[in-house]
TrEMBL record:
This is Malate/lactate dehydrogenase. Coiled coil: none annotated. Keywords: Oxidoreductase. Belongs to the LDH2/MDH2 oxidoreductase family. PANTHER family: MALATE DEHYDROGENASE (PTHR11091:SF0), OXIDOREDUCTASE-RELATED (PTHR11091). The lineage of its organism: Bacteria, Bacillati, Bacillota, Clostridia, Eubacteriales. It comes from Desulfitobacterium dichloroeliminans (strain LMG P-21439 / DCA1).
Amino acid sequence: MQANNTYEVNAMKRFMEQAFSACGVPVADGQIVSDNLLYAELRGIKSHGISRFPIYLRRIQKGAVNPQPKIAIEQRALGILGVDGDNGLGAVGMVHALNRGMEQARQVGICVIGMKGSNHFGASGYYCQLAAEQGFVSIVLTDAPPATPPWGGKEAYFGTNPIAFGLPRAEKPHIIVDLATSLVARGKIIRAAAQGEEIPKGWALDKEGFATTDPQAALAGVLLPMAGAKGYALSLAVEHLAGVLVGAGFGKEVAWQYGEGNKPANVGHFVILVKADAFLTMETYHKRVEHFVEEIKQIPLAPGYQEIKLPGEREWEQEQSSVVQGVTLDEDMLATFQAIAQELNIKL
């Protein structure tokens, strides 16, 4: 199916896989990254969806990302894994680390993963989803290039530093909490800049420290943390756990993937995996989760609301329809994808 710049999901996935392969990425790794990008795209998280695909390719092509990393996973202690992503694509290193971590957690009940030498790894909730499907509660943290200031400052130091939680259910959509500690994801600012749109006031400051609705000025300035000083405190904690603690870059050491140079980003990730039946039988756990969900859903509605949604539920519903409707590229994105197809001699 192709109509109005809309492509079948599998066709888009094949195209991205072929493009990654043409740039030296092993087939299995290209499948991981393409799946990661489509997870976000189909769930309406477009700031981390296929709009990231072109910059992933460009960074590989200019030598800023290693297309064939030798990912090193070291047993630091029982239930603790240290991972070096060898400057590979973030999703590739994280999926390898997550799979090893789940093996470990099955044996001892819990596993903590600290990863350095990585790159942008897409939507954090993707890894929570993978873990939930295997019966694990998960917490996923990642640092990022400087985007937000310490509270009271006007210069970026912390990344958008997402925090994600995966809470498994038996069959229904898993509960996936995925949020940036900045007021918005930087990807939303990047998309607004690319499309020539203004951003809402209150999202960002320009480089002089004044509020701005210009996305270009926002990218040159700083994003604001969510919840004021509380968001700053959370961002600091993520930067420490995913950067300082694990040996990855932190603060201004983390390179921005849209920059001109080819300096390794050295992004860091921090993951905690716990078996959902670590404290109860799995049957009891699932019963308690559904009772928990039922009580939340039965809370009386505030005016103007028709239903109480769980975190990740709206995105899951969006995914169900998106799989049928396909992936639509706006004019700029279509032109970019067509240029990639021509450059790499593959069919879009």
